[in-house]
Amino acid sequence: MKILITGKNGQLGKQLQKQVPAGVTLVAHGRDTVDVANKEQVFSVLGGAKPDVVINAAAYTAVDKAESDIEQAHAINARGSENLALACRELGARLIHVSTDFVFDGQQSHPYKPEDYRKPLGVYGESKARGEEAIEAILPEAIIVRTAWVYDREGGNFVTTMLRLMNERDQLGVVADQIGTPTWAGTLAQSIYALAENSEAKGIYHCTDAGAASWYDFAVAIFEEGKSAGLLPQDKQVKVGPIATADYPTPAARPAYSVLDKSRLVKEAGVELKHWRQVLRAALNTTELQK
Ligand SMILES: NC(=O)c1ccc[n+]([C@@H]2O[C@H](COP(=O)([O-])OP(=O)(O)OC[C@H]3O[C@@H](n4cnc5c(N)ncnc54)[C@H](OP(=O)(O)O)[C@@H]3O)[C@@H](O)[C@H]2O)c1
């Protein structure tokens, strides 16, 4: 199976390159060779490569910046997704697109199912929702994988930011009234490949690690697991305290609750999702991270 990925330098893009299954030939593109917002380039590169499957790991992910950069967010997340769907339809390739829990408003108090109504709160969520809708209209057999709170042991994300701040400071306030599920980028990559291998899979799937947490819970776990992994000095003390969203204003509103129901993914892709804390421990304990 020949798989082409976009967004190769992002968190997911890197894990997709690390976890290539046997029997897959991977062609990986970054923004320099496939700008998803550039329709001509998308058609020309995909047409030349003739992949069986295209995985779209490219996205405009700066949630707060998107509030004042509406055109770019839509060009990449909405029209970029549309360009890929049109090219895949012409080539007869399968498309696996990645989306977000931010398509929901967070007013629910039980896990969101793939078929629940989209009601984004901000520009980023709106642009991702428009991308989903474009793909569904152009290529109904495409796969859309919604995920949330993605991190890896490198790059800019909540885990690396917390570890840096915990090394620098003695005290941190972290939002405790937003509930979701941390997701290691590796879990997402493995789940996407499992869906690629199921020729019957189509439509929307939800993928995160298992369980639920507030950002505050996640930060406390990062402190404890970071210490055990030797990423923080053993004698380091940091007072991590819970704060309210209202006390940490951001340009973009975020869903208060965005736990996703993963039962369809588990059933149809046969993946086993482990509790987020167990996955965090494993991700932080790799020798690669400790270098
Ligand atoms: N991160 C999260 O917490 C989170 C949560 C829910 C859903 N998601 C979704 O998960 C997917 C993967 O996210 P991620 O965390 O891996 O994001 P990421 O680390 O920000 O990577 C996104 C990649 O897309 C590339 N890109 C941006 N604009 C592009 C364009 N016009 N054409 C081609 N490539 C472009 C970026 O390139 P540059 O490096 O050049 O900017 C970057 O390498 C995205 O669909 C995102 O919406 C992420």
TrEMBL record:
<dbReference type="InterPro" id="IPR029903">
    <property type="entry name" value="RmlD-like-bd"/>
</dbReference>
<dbReference type="GO" id="GO:0005829">
    <property type="term" value="C:cytosol"/>
</dbReference>
<dbReference type="GO" id="GO:0019305">
    <property type="term" value="P:dTDP-rhamnose biosynthetic process"/>
</dbReference>
<comment type="similarity">
    <text>Belongs to the dTDP-4-dehydrorhamnose reductase family.</text>
</comment>
<protein>
    <recommendedName>
        <fullName>dTDP-4-dehydrorhamnose reductase</fullName>
        <ecNumber>1.1.1.133</ecNumber>
    </recommendedName>
</protein>
<dbReference type="GO" id="GO:0008831">
    <property type="term" value="F:dTDP-4-dehydrorhamnose reductase activity"/>
</dbReference>
<dbReference type="GO" id="GO:0009243">
    <property type="term" value="P:O antigen biosynthetic process"/>
</dbReference>
<comment type="pathway">
    <text>Carbohydrate biosynthesis; dTDP-L-rhamnose biosynthesis.</text>
</comment>
<dbReference type="Pfam" id="PF04321">
    <property type="entry name" value="RmlD_sub_bind"/>
</dbReference>
<keyword id="KW-0521">NADP</keyword>
<keyword id="KW-0560">Oxidoreductase</keyword>
<dbReference type="InterPro" id="IPR036291">
    <property type="entry name" value="NAD(P)-bd_dom_sf"/>
</dbReference>
<comment type="function">
    <text>Catalyzes the reduction of dTDP-6-deoxy-L-lyxo-4-hexulose to yield dTDP-L-rhamnose.</text>
</comment>
<dbReference type="InterPro" id="IPR005913">
    <property type="entry name" value="dTDP_dehydrorham_reduct"/>
</dbReference>
<feature type="domain" description="RmlD-like substrate binding">
    <location>
        <begin position="1"/>
        <end position="286"/>
    </location>
</feature>
